[in-house]
Amino acid sequence: MTDPSRRQVLRGAGLLLAGSAALALSGCASTGPSALYELTATPEVPATRKRAVQVLVARPRALKALDTDRIAVLENGLQISYFPDAAWTDALPNVLQSKIAEALQDTGALRGVGFPGEGLLIDYQLQTDIRTFALTTEGADRAVVELAARLLDDRNGRSVATQVFRAEVASSGLTAEQAVSALNRANGQVLAALTAWVIGTV
Q1: What percent of the chain shows pLDDT beyond 90?
Q2: DSSP E strand boundaries for 58-136
Q3: In the CATH scheme, what is the code of domain 51-70+85-201?
Q4: 10, 31, 146, 196: least CB-packed within 10 angstroms?
Q5: Domain boundaries, the chain
Q6: Mind telling me which Gene3D superfamilies this protein's record contains (predicted)?
Q7: pLDDT tens, 124-155?
Q8: Burial of 117 by CB count in 10 Å (0-12 exposed, 13-18 middle, 19+ buried)?
């Protein structure tokens, strides 16, 4: 059971109590967020031989609760809301798409990495689903990032491989800054594993 001080902090983060199977979404602050946060973790992946392939990074899919620039807080696996005065620099799927492409580009192992509409002759398409990307307060406070990924052969549309990547990192507290720090570390672990998987598969 959450103690009174902990409940006060969670209320400050905007958590709303809903029914046992309901998902509660807090409204956006009318004046907008006072702080914008970026995902900064760029994983280091060991250098490998260069592949003569080009990979398209599709925009990650996400449910409406995560297809937003708001930073999510999850309690009891059922109730979700957002830090009222903080946000990502863009909608989370857009930020992640950029970071995934950046991580792949930084390996130097691919001939090219691009986005839809750029006119590249694509060999593979990387599709991802954002399953979880939130500070969770069930049990120990921690950041949880989980992505489901699929590689498609863009020449015939066939699925080449699928994999789920997940990381949990303890948070030092329940402020937006502490949550973002933990989320960055968790995301860095996920991107490192995702990048190595892509490079090893194509």
Answers
A1: 66
A2: 70-75, 79-88, 110-114, 124-136
A3: 3.40.50.10610
A4: 31
A5: 51-70+85-201
A6: ABC-type transport auxiliary lipoprotein component
A7: 999 999 999 999 998 899 999 999 999 999 88
A8: exposed
